[in-house]
Write a structure and sequence with these properties.
mainly beta, about 5% helix, single chain, eight-stranded mixed beta sheet, Arrestin-like_C, Immunoglobulin-like, about 400 residues
Length: about 400
């Protein structure tokens, strides 16, 4: 939520190569993303500076859990800024000496580089939320507080190893169900990349009998499911939550034993499947794959687990290792104020004419417009995502080379 001003309108716009198919800006440890800040000014006005701020927070809903928040608690992961135009923030001079921002449309390029640090991922839950946002701040003469743009969300995805090396053997677990019937559960792998689409977990269950002839099969239900476990911690407080995120019941079990049953458990899409998380100061995310049966003993049905093992959801392909210089946020949290442990604003370079253009505007109604060569710039107005707009008239804008001189990093 920004601060509305009748004479100022501004947007934070991103180049399309840094967004996904839904228009959301995605960043990773060590990645770079860039765009422009667009400022439309209706009248000439004295302005101390125009500033771009990038900040991240991990906030626990203390009230919902009945926990008392310490006054010294700092929910920030980082907060960095760069002055796009005007005076440095620490320069105090009379308002009548402030630089004048002319009426018209102005564009200011920016480039931001993430450190090679695994921050907690972008995450939204009613008990805890981790958010990465950009906001523009304008300090105008005559205003008691800065004029702010609306917050533009940035999606941070950490680098999580799925499995360091590709496993050569399936994971198995055996149990005796009755005095004569045993079972063997086999799962090819227990690690998946959340960025892969339309994934499923294959599970094979073999039932064998100690009798030479077919034996009556006392199994009334066979189920495979994945449970997700959230653990939220703050000082001496702790809250745990378990949710079944996927399950599959075998529709019709055989009537006799021995037999073999094969199942496939479809995984949720990436938006509903946050990666396994173990390094956040307040949040842990873990998963378990479970195979269970119900065994008939007369009128009674007894539930028994046949397989119960952790399953990992990472962000890298199987067999791919994380960079050696990658650090977890939990390892640098005590030294997070260090300049090396925060994102950096870099000096933008002039873009060549052959560089990829921005996409044209698409309002979500009807068919998308044609991609014309004179179209540019992305628009973040729809749902906080980086969609696109047509190139603005830069007749009243500061030249690109002059804009670069205003970047302080």
């Amino acid at each position: 939520m920004g601060t509305k001003h009748p004479n100022i309108d501004f947007n934070i716009l991103f180049y399309p190569q840094y967004t996904n198919e839904t228009g959301q800006v995605i960043c990773h440890p060590g990645s770079v993303f860039e765009g422009i800040v667009q400022v439309k000014v209706a009248v000439t006005m004295p302005v101390h500076h125009i500033k771009l701020v990038f900040k991240a927070t991990e906030r626990v809903n203390y009230d919902a859990m009945g926990w008392e928040k310490s006054k010294s608690t700092d929910d920030r992961l980082f907060a960095v800024r760069t002055v796009l135009w005007g005076l440095p923030s620490g320069v105090n001079i009379p308002q009548d000496a402030w630089p004048i921002l002319d009426a018209g449309e102005h564009t200011f390029p920016f480039v931001c580089q993430m450190p090679v640090i695994n921050y907690p991922p972008t995450f939204h839950h009613h008990l805890i939320a981790t958010a990465f946002n950009m906001v523009v701040s304008i300090s105008k003469a005559g205003e008691s507080s800065p004029i702010l743009s609306k917050l533009i969300p940035i999606c941070f995805q950490p680098i999580i190893e799925t499995i360091p090396i590709k496993n050569l053997h399936a994971f198995t677990e055996s149990h005796r169900l009755t005095s004569h019937i045993t079972t063997l559960v086999s799962v090819p792998r227990l690690a998946y990349n959340i960025t892969d689409k339309n994934q499923s977990v294959p599970v094979t269950v073999q039932f064998t009998s100690g009798h030479s002839s077919d034996e009556h099969f006392p199994i009334s239900q066979l189920r495979v499911y994945i449970k997700r476990y959230y653990s939220i911690n703050y000082k001496t407080f702790s809250r745990n939550e378990a949710t079944m995120i996927a399950h599959n019941d075998y529709p019709k079990l055989p009537a006799t034993c021995p037999c073999t049953v094969s199942m496939k458990l479809a995984l949720p899409n990436q938006e509903e499947l946050p990666a396994t998380l173990s390094y956040s100061p307040h949040l842990t995310i873990q998963y378990k794959l479970v195979v269970s049966v119900k065994i008939r003993h007369g009128p009674i049905h007894v539930k028994k687990k046949l397989f119960d093992m952790p399953i990992v959801f990472g962000t890298l392909p199987a067999g791919t290792r994380a960079p050696r210089q990658l650090e977890s946020y939990s390892d640098i949290v005590e030294n997070r104020a260090s300049i090396n442990n925060k994102p950096h604003f870099l000096r933008p370079q002039p873009r060549n004419q052959n560089d990829e253009e921005f996409l044209p505007v698409y309002d979500g109604e009807g068919v998308p417009p044609a991609y014309l060569s004179d179209l540019a710039l992305e628009d973040n107005l729809n749902d906080g995502h980086a969609t696109s707009i047509t190139r603005i008239n830069t007749a009243n804008s500061t030249p690109a080379n002059s804009l670069r001189l205003g970047i302080t990093g």
